[in-house]
Structure of YSC84-related protein:
Amino acid sequence: MRQLLQTFLLGIAVLTYSNACWAESPAEQRQNIKNMSLEVLQDLYKYDSASKANINKAYGYAVFSNVGINLLFLSTANGSGVAHANGSGKDTYMDMFSAGLGLGLGVKDFRGVFVFYTQEAFDNFVQSGWDFSGQADATAKSGKKGDSANTAMNVAPAVDFYQLTENGLALQATLQGTKYYKNDDLN
C-alpha cells in the first residue's frame, strides 16, 4: 500500500510539473475556454432543443468542463469555465475543484451548464463562488428520453443545471464536494 501511495504521489508531481512546462498564455487559456463553451453548448442544444431558448431568455449562464480521476480511495477533479451575462455580453472566467473519498478507479468527463434566471443568482455565483460541499444530487425536471423535454435540474432558486456525459444528457447531476470560483489570472 505504501508503494502504491508513493507511485500515486510521484504521478501527481509529474503531471503538475508537465502542466507548468506547457502552460498557455492567459489569452490562449481564455480562447480555449470560449471554444470549449461553444462546443458544450452545441452538444447541449443537440440533446435538448428547449435548452437554447432557456439560455437565451435567462440573465446569464456558465459552462464548465473538467476531468475527474478516481484512484482507490481518493477522487479529485478540476476544470475551468466561463460565466456569461446575456445582457452585457461580459464573460467571467472561473475554475472548479472537487475532492472526495470513496472506492473507485477511473477517469470521468464532466461538462455542465448552469442557467441563471435572475441577476441576483448570477451575481452570487460569479462574485462569491459556490460550494456544493453540503448539497447532494439534483433532480431532473423531466425523465423523458428521446424527445425535447426539458432535462434541466433545479439546483438553487432561479438556477437550473444541465450535465452532459459521453452518452448525452445526464438525468442526475452530482455537484457534491465541488467549488466554483473566479480565476483571478484570467479576469
Observations:
- The CA atoms of residues 136 and 176 lie 5 Å apart.
- The first strand starts at residue 60 and ends at 85.
